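Below is how a single chain appears once it has passed through the pipeline. First comes the sequence as given, then the structure the pipeline wrote out for it. We keep one example in the README because the format questions we get most often are answered faster by looking than by reading.
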Amino acid sequence: SALERARTLGRFLPPQVVRAIVEEGQAVEVQQERRRLTLFRIELRGFEAVLRSAAPEDMAVMLNSYLSAMIGIAFAAGATIDRFVRDELVGFFGAPAGGTPEQDALACATLARAMWARAWEVCGQWRGLLAVTPPAPTMVLNSGYATVGNFGSVERLEYTAVGGAADEARDLLRALGPGVLACSQATWGLIAGLCVDLLSGSP
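Resulting structure:
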């Protein structure tokens, strides 16, 4: 049935892509295109200490609670989830559908503020469960061109963004200290006239 197909595809592809396939009858193809995106990457600095100190079952509960909260915020905002690897979550605005570069950047900045506050809240809830200091959310936004689309084979696809701005976002995140929320100059150039202090303030 269409519902079963949507559930199966939803395990591998973002809702926007699933909707196009199921409701609009688009074929599942291995194809890519160059798009202008605003990407976000968030991770928990210090999560390695959690892995070492927490029991496996406790760690699984904590990680799943964090990822569920972050993915829920992202989907509610209309973001495309690129991937998550352990505690790092990557997503973007601008594909498969999007607005103007300014609209996508502002949407991403608005999402980042909500995600940032919730990430600190979730990590704070772990304080009584850990023998170590809870991890510190660290997040970056970047805008620019990347290659986005379905990568893999018809048997197993991932809808992801690679190269260009996606690689820049990865490198920017690595350069940040723990507990920092920042946006690149490219993103700030798109949102500076649309918002005031959206990314400022403490958690």
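Residues 60 and 67 are 10 Å apart (CA to CA).

See the next section for the split statistics.
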